[in-house]
Design goal:
The complex is a heterodimer of chains A (442) and B (243).
Chain A (H helix, E strand, L loop, with lengths): L1 H14 L1 H29 L10 E5 L18 E2 H7 L7 E13 L7 E8 L3 H4 L4 E4 L4 H5 L4 E4 L1 H8 L8 E4 L2 E9 L22 E4 L29 H7 L3 E8 L3 H20 L10 E4 H7 L5 H30 L2 H9 L4 H38 L13 H27 L3 H5 L3
Parallel strand pairs in A: 4-9, 6-8
Antiparallel strand pairs in A: 1-10, 1-11, 2-10, 3-4, 3-7, 3-10, 5-8, 6-9, 7-8
Chain B lengths: L1 E14 L2 E14 L3 E5 L6 H8 L7 E6 L2 E2 L5 H11 E5 L10 H11 L4 H14 L15 H15 L3 E5 L7 H16 L3 E5 L3 H4 L4 E6 L2 E7 L11 H6 L1
Parallel strand pairs in B: 3-8, 3-9, 6-7, 7-8
Antiparallel strand pairs in B: 1-2, 1-4, 4-5, 9-10
Helix pairs in contact in B: 3-4, 3-5, 4-5, 5-6
Classes of the chains: A alpha+beta (442), B alpha/beta (243).
Chain lengths: 442, 243
């Protein structure tokens, strides 16, 4: 019976082509707009590290200096280099990493002009913690972190640029006058939200070069994103080598992440942080009340408002737009159905029950909804292309906002919803028409 | 057992404060296999009677038994099933669905009966052959003459093999030659055992039935048996189609 109803719906479209086109357009607009904005929300709000987010925790400690303003009662969002190195020694987390972003001049071979680009300083654990995909090679070892070795992991786009896309593992890149051995080349990777960089701009593409954190001193890397200094340099400190300055300085510029597999480990790690802060207090640091925080990735995203409230509002408004579009189509469907009330009278006389008539017309509405939804998805692809022009593609040419399978299913659901909203009342009205009333008028 | 039995049936139409009694204490029995014609002036209640008989309209008072089934308390679904399986309608305006060709028009009641495709096809081809329209199966109603359209409507009824045919002025829109053809087909169907109740304004056609009834002001106040009514015939149109 479903196929029969589909056939009848198609005949109805052929009988009223203009009216049907208007209905399609209405649904397409509604579905297109709502799918575009819901996709934008979905892209920003979805789990940035599927399967790992639950075990990734961000560490904050109240390391502000004494006598600071009430504004500084909360712990700063970043930690110092010396604290990061201490926390990295703990074996409670399965993995841990401290990270910051910097800029460097990259010197290509063969006379190509040097260029500046982003560099992220991390430890070896960073790559498995944030599920970073590799095309060639892999991350460096923990031993390479400790020494530190002059190694680097580069993005596939940079690999294309420097090595023509060939496997460059073992080859050298020149960075700020230092030669670094490539140990890994990333696969296509454009996380919509940079979980590891929530305190900077989380929507930016990842940096194309990753090097060991402890090269920061020898290579004199300075943070290029957020940095907070509260301590005035003591006499003579400016003359110290940069690595030594990093150790004595209270500059806050590192994000610290720990991978903690269960609640027990989280509690244990929190105690470890508390103990570390108590110990530092005895040494004269951390003068303020301790406000140590070990926050899960998803909670931190909520806290930092990674998904702008405007995006949520736009998604809600676009849904409302779909509902209004569908409500406006009620009149068109009603007109279309009532125009053939006499046919319905005939069908009732021939044995169709009210329910049969209702289903026949609702199937027509849902098919119109699905067809309009298909057009709406095409509109949505165009809408997302416009958004991508604003946000820009990732370094690997992967569009920032893309319709994924769940969003296509959502678009289908929205289409069916629009069909139901627009068609429920007209289908009910037409099935409630007394059959005898229209038989004579046929 | 009568095919159709109404006792004191009343039908009232209400429009605001105005009440119109379309049927008043209407009582009638039609035997299985009978051919009954109903005449009466416009607005007398003929069509209302057919609508109530065909379960297309409700009634307020009285009892109505169709083929031994008390239909006054049936649900919409049950009434639809009775209409589909026991009753065939023939209308003055043919009431074919304009978007569907001849085959699909005849197919409609069979679809609602959920018959398998092969059986539907067989029934349709036999019924169309019976009314002489086998070559027009893929024509749309608009491509047929009035007489041909009415024959399609009759084929639609025959394919469904109903126990009772309700015909509302089936020759009203046809010229006299076509009207005669239609009457001959109906008589053949009746001879095969199907009960027919036909509303007509044509006295000649009315006189061809076994019994002629007259309605005025919603009352059945005059009737006359015209011809002896043989009761030992097959009871369905299927016998005719098969024969």
């Amino acid at each position: 019976m479903l196929l029969y109803n589909v056939r009848l719906a198609w005949k109805s479209v052929q009988r009223y082509p203009v009216l049907s086109a208007l209905i399609l357009l209405g649904i397409a607009l509604g579905v297109g707009v709502s799918t575009t904005f819901i996709t934008a929300y979905h892209v920003l709000a979805r789990d940035p590290v599927p399967g790992k987010s639950d075990s990734l925790y961000y560490v904050r400690m109240n390391s502000w200096g004494r006598g600071d303003s009430p504004f500084r009662q909360d712990p700063p969002p970043l930690i110092t280099y010396r604290d990061a190195l201490e926390l990295l020694k703990s074996r409670i987390p399965v993995r841990s990493t401290a990270t910051f972003s910097s800029q460097a001049t990259i010197f290509p071979r063969d006379g190509v002009r040097p260029f500046r680009d982003g560099v992220r300083l991390v430890t070896a654990d960073f790559f498995p913690m944030f599920a970073v995909p590799f095309r060639y090679g892999g991350p460096w070892s923990r031993e390479a972190d400790a020494r530190p070795e002059s190694v680097a992991v580069i993005s596939s786009a940079l690999n294309d640029r420097l090595f023509g896309g060939a496997n460059s593992v073992g080859r050298a890149i020149r960075l700020e006058g230092h030669d670094l051995r490539v140990v890994g080349v990333l696969g296509p990777w454009r996380p919509r939200v940079r979980a590891f960089g929530l305190m900077g701009n989380p929507l930016r593409a990842p940096e194309p070069v990753f090097i060991p954190l402890q090269l920061a001193g020898p290579m004199s890397f300075q943070p290029s994103e957020m940095q907070m200094n509260w301590r005035t340099p003591q006499p003579g400190e400016e003359a110290l080598p940069y690595a030594s300055q990093l150790m004595v300085n209270e500059a806050l510029f590192l994000g610290f992440w720990a991978e903690l597999p269960d609640a027990g480990k989280v509690r244990e790690y929190k105690s470890f942080i508390d103990a570390y802060v108590s110990e530092q207090k005895k040494l004269g640091r951390f003068p303020n009340p301790p406000q140590n925080r070990v926050t899960s990735l998803l909670d931190l995203m909520e806290e930092e408002r990674v998904v702008p409230p405007q995006t949520k509002a736009l998604a809600a408004i676009s849904l409302l737009f779909l509902v209004v579009s569908a409500l406006n189509l009620i009149g068109l469907f009603l007109g279309k159905f009532l125009a053939r009330a006499s046919n319905v009278g005939v069908r009732r006389a021939l044995g169709a029950s009210r329910w049969t008539i209702f289903v026949q017309h609702l199937v027509e509405c849902e098919l119109m909804g699905l067809a309009g939804g298909f057009l709406g998805v095409l509109l949505s692809v165009a809408g997302l292309a416009i958004l991508n022009r604003v946000y820009g593609d990732g370094p690997d040419g992967v569009a920032f906002f893309q319709l994924d399978v769940p969003m296509v299913f959502a678009a289908v659901a929205l289409s069916l919803l629009a069909g139901t909203i627009a068609g429920l009342y007209p289908a009910w009205r037409i099935c409630a028409v007394p059959p005898a009333r229209h038989l004579k008028s046929q | 057992m009568p095919m159709l039995k109404m006792q004191n049936v009343s039908k009232i139409y209400r429009t605001g404060l105005v009440e119109t009694r379309a049927l008043r204490e209407f009582s009638l029995e039609v035997e299985a296999g009978e051919f009954v014609t109903i005449t009466g002036p416009s607005g007398s209640g003929k069509t209302t009677f057919l609508n109530v008989s065909g379960l297309l309209d409700a009634f307020e008072e009285g009892t109505y038994t169709l083929d031994g089934l008390d239909v006054s308390r049936l649900s919409d679904r049950e009434m639809s099933r009775v209409r589909n399986e026991k009753i065939g309608f023939i209308f003055q305006g043919f009431n074919l669905l304009p978007d569907l060709d001849v085959f699909d028009n005849i197919d409609v009641p069979l679809r609602y009966r959920r018959l398998p495709a092969r059986e539907r096809k067989e029934r349709i081809e036999k019924a169309v052959a019976m009314v002489g329209l086998s070559s027009r199966l893929r024509h749309l109603p608009a491509q047929l003459s009035g007489g041909q359209q009415q024959r399609v409507a009759i084929a639609r009824v025959l394919a469904g093999d109903p126990r009772l045919i309700l015909a509302d002025e089936p020759t009203g829109n046809l010229d006299s030659a076509m009207a005669r053809e239609i009457m001959e087909i109906l008589e053949q169907v009746n001879e095969a055992g199907t009960t027919i109740v036909m509303v007509t304004h044509n006295p000649e056609h009315a006189a061809r039935a076994h019994r002629q009834l007259h309605i005025a002001d919603g009352r059945l106040f005059d009737f006359e048996r015209i011809a002896p009514f043989p009761l030992n015939k097959p009871q369905t149109a299927a016998a005719l189609v098969a024969g």
